[in-house]
Amino acid sequence: MKKLLSIFLAALMIASVFTGCVPAPDNSEDQQPEIVEPTPPPYTPNPWTGWERDPDFDTNMRATAIMINNISSARPQRGLSQANLLFESKVEGGITRFMAVFEDYSKLEGDVGPVRSGRDQFLQWAMPYFALYCHIGRSGITQTYIDSFEYNYLDIDGQHRVFTYRRNRPGYATEHTSYTNTELLQKAIDKYEYDMNRTYGSPIFNFVKYDENNGTRDLTGQAVTDISVVHSETYRTYFTYDEATNRYMMSQYNGSKRVREQTVDENNGQQLGFENVFIAFADISKYPWPGDGPYDPNYQKVDLSYGGVGYYFSNGRMEQIRWFKGGAPEVLKFTDMDENPLQVNCGKSYIGFVDYDEAERFEFVGPEEEIVEEAIDNTQEATTDAEFE
């Protein structure tokens, strides 16, 4: 029995040896390599332009909004070509003023100015961005807004807190000579302890994605090569489409010289150009003046309460739009005519608020048309060199 068992175990061991030598079946043809999908880069748009952020973009930098003189005898201005947003509106009588919004004051190249006094409509546009609001002087109405909404912690008035210098500018009135720059702003921010840390969680507009069709879309309206905006008899803004740069290039009427001139940044000699031009019509009327005597500054109230209609120009075409604002802390919004969020092309933006009374004189034409300039009478700029604080 033991002999039989020994023979059986020996046979089993031999079998196991031969079994271990049998090669495993080759299934390599049936095995596919694991495909690893590449991780897409994070989508990080610049909140002010919609373009991809530059490598040195500071995600914790508060925007800076600076009031800029636009009286024709104060031109050319400096620093406007660096602004991400440029607002224009009537301020007193027929004259207009600018508010330039910069994403990062620490990267300004050269001067910005001439700096001028604040007005409430501009403050209401800057307030939802929590921007540092920079000006020299202000209307009493503007100060009421600053106090009512407790915006003093982000308001810097050059009449009380120095952030500008007087530039030697022969032939110009004194009120047209105040300028600021990175160094002066930094000194004021440090001295008066302004908190410039601010993270903007989302872009200010519903921008087209920068990685889709080069950040642009084709607007649905007609082709537009020239735009003529009438703010008043002597304050007019023009845009001409430059297909090479995909921008609308800006010009203005000079009432003192009675000519149309390119709007140029004196720092670099560049004409201002914008990928986006917004024209928003609003009720603009005179604030009642409670003061005694013949002096009346004729401050203009822009009614931002209910919104209105307007036009959007970009990429050589146009669309009719609606705009909404509401209260002072609420952000300015643009929609299509059905009130869907407006898709805005990536780039810098001009936003002009225009009186409904001037809507009939607003014009835009396509490449086959020609703008017919209206004759401008001999009306003089009675307020051209007036000092308004």
CATH topology: YerB-like fold
| Average predicted local confidence, pLDDT | 88
Secondary-structure-derived class: alpha+beta
Top CATH class: Alpha Beta
Task: Count the beta strands.
Answer: 24
In percent, how helical is the residue content?
10-25%
Oligomeric grouping of the chains: single chain
Tell me what you see in this structure.
The termini are far apart. The strands form 6 sheets. The protein has a 10-stranded mixed sheet with strand order 5-4-1-3-2-23-16-19-20-21, covered by helices on one side. The radius of gyration is 31 Å and the shape is globular. It is an alpha+beta fold and 389 residues long. It has one domain (64-365): YerB-like fold (3-Layer(bba) Sandwich). The model is unreliable at 1-22 and 372-389 (pLDDT under 50). 12% of the residues lie in helices and 28% in strands. It is built from 4 helices and 24 strands. Helix 2 packs parallel to helix 3. The chain has helices spanning 2-21, 120-126, 140-148, 182-192; strands at residues 64-68, 85-92, 95-102, 132-135, 155-157, 165-166, 178-179, 206-207, 226-230, 236-242, 247-254, 259-262, 264-265, 270-271, 273-274, 276-282, 284-286, 300-302, 308-314, 317-324, 333-335, 343-344, 349-355, 363-365.
In short:
With 389 residues, the protein is α+β, with helices and mostly antiparallel strands.
List keywords for this structure.
single chain, 389 residues, alpha+beta, YerB-like fold, 10-stranded mixed β-sheet, 6-stranded antiparallel β-sheet, 24 strands, 12% helix, globular
